[in-house]
Write a structure and sequence with these properties.
By secondary structure, the protein is α/β, with parallel strands linked by helices. Helices cover 42% and strands 16% of the residues. It has five domains: 188 residues, Rossmann fold; 160 residues, P-loop containing nucleotide triphosphate hydrolases (Rossmann fold); 54 residues, no CATH class; 134 residues, no CATH class; 91 residues, no CATH class. The longest helix is centred in the C-terminal third of the chain and has 20 residues. It catalyses: ATP + H2O = ADP + phosphate + H(+).
Length: 745
Amino acid sequence: MEEEELEFSNSSSEKRYFPESLDSSDGEEEGVLACEDLELNPFDGLPYSSRYYKLLKEREDLPIWKEKYSFMENLLQNQIVIISGDAKCGKSSQVPQWCAEYCLSIHYQHGGVICTQVHKQTAVQLALRVADEMDVNIGHEVGYVIPFENCCTSETILRYCTDDMLQREMMSNPFLGSYGVIILDDVHERSIATDVLLGLLKDVLLARPELKLIINSSPHLISKLSSYYGNVPLIEVKNKHPVEVVYLSGAQKDPFESILHLIFEIHHSGEKGDIVVFLACEQDIEKAYEIVYQEGSNLNPDLGELVVVPLYPKEKCTLFKPTDDTEKRCQVYQRRVVLTTSSGESLIWSNSVKFVIDVGIERRKVYNPRIRANSLVMQPISQSQAEIRKQILGSSSSGKLFCLYTEEFASKDMRPLKPAEMQEANLTSMVLFMKRIDIAGLGHCDFMNRPAPESLMQALEDLDYLAALDNDGNLSEFGIIMSEFPLDPQLSKSILASCEFDCVDEMLTIAAMVTAPNCFSHLPHGTEEAALTCWKTFLHPEGDHFTLINIYKAYQDTTQNSTSEHCVEKWCHDYFLNCSALRMADAIRAELLEIIKRIELPYAEPAFGSRENTLNIKKALLSGYFMQIARDVDGSGNYLMLTHKQVAQLHPLSSYSVTRKMPEWVLFHKFSISENNYIRITSEISPELFMQLAPQYYFSNLPSSESKDILQQVMDHLSPISTMNKEQTVCEKCPETTEQRCAIQ
């Protein structure tokens, strides 16, 4: 790599690196620069605003700022740099800006900067904050890319994105030639996409010696990262603040009573500061919200207002950050109580948090490949997670952490590190991606933690059933088309099948609605009956997938006929629907439609409501979800899975539960083994339709059961002609072949 001459400064004032074109003093530029003592922003050529200097002072107070000179020297001399820092040390906002300065200094000859985040909310908020700090426009010099939303242009210098979006970009740009610096942030979260990127980028770095890789992580994972990447520079950021830790033995017996007692004790003490409560699951958030909200309304108003903020990280919600309305908070004191779960650890940005209450357990989804279902299991959090929760108080001059567990529990029952998602999740989507990348020669990935062989085999088997693989185990042309959709492979298969069955419009709506967050609002206590009355207006007799189409169509009609966004929000509120989830579904559907048009798949005119269309939608759904079928074994709503011996019930909000009509055979979208064992988003199917569309070799591999015997009898009665038609129904995008694996089954 050729020598690059950069000027560094270790002073407290910021030093930027200007390309020659901006540093020259010839011609017209000389007159402009000499006119006033205005310092120009090298990224847009405009004078800095007064706000820039105000934010610069705040940036200089961040713990990471002391390491700027060291970081820039290491960036210049090395291809990989690892940064170890606690939460709130500033590494996620400052390091990308320094990398942008580096790219600017070499005239972007190797590309711009991209910084990955695990959570889409974090990516958006960091982009907004950094654009403000750099004094540039969001969406131009600085932007973000998250699923189904792109706020960037071809001129964007620094972009934040979710890790899965950078992973998807590798399908069309395997060596990521648009970027000179790649930053993997919050690697300690151990998401599947981040682990895949860590492995694939090893090969990319070998192919592109000019590319720089920065890895940001909490201190707990540093030793593992160092051994994984070898002897690379490490920058450690110290961020020590006094935090008082209080362990409460006996609190685990009744955590809700302990939480309630602590919240009101803190509030009565008069000590200022917001409270964050880490609970085990989202159901606990709802339960705690009801309790704290009701009890808080009876408090003495002289103590100030207690504002309860439920933070559901999986929804597209605003991060919990400081309020701008400081004057109001001074006049009438408000103490905010934030209720969240483990996945909300990186979403707490407010410096006003002075108290953290930690239950020490979480409900995790652990995928069981043998039965193709998630189990929801209660487990202790890891020691690294406990430390991150403590660090939320790190920017406070003092803070207090209440642990609803003992020190012995923390040392003996908590694992040192958070488990990698790759070792606990369904890997079908990841394997489809890896098969696609293999086309570019990057398929042999060196994972930091190798996934279980059983999970990999199940993923390959499912892709084979879905006709995504050819006879050699490589990605088929059909599988390549499936990988174009940013969806679960089963859903991608259903969309492609809908092209054959002339119901693409309806299938895109279903795909968007099941991919977006839940469209039904979280219900305050006492509103359940009113909400159910409203929701009944959308029910469809054919099942929940059709009900979702009704809801989306009603939302679309309201949007088109409303004069303002406020009217749409009011309509959603009146019908107890989640407006942001429906907006997200609209955006998802638009992108899916764009993909359909780009790869020139057939698109029939919508015909929702006709009998033929209803049958075709079920055919398309079955083509992707034939592995998710259940049968009511006793006529009372006890559904036995076709693939294993788990019994489940319909979700209470299912159209069948509301109308009390229990179909014998159903196709379902979700199932998790938990205390309730609900199957969610269900629609009735017939055994005849199943046998016509499910692959024969999948059916033959099913375990013996009464349900399989019934299906065998159905198959015996099917005419040879229908069987022949099934084998000869071939996807138009696949090469002409009589192989059953390339059929739309």
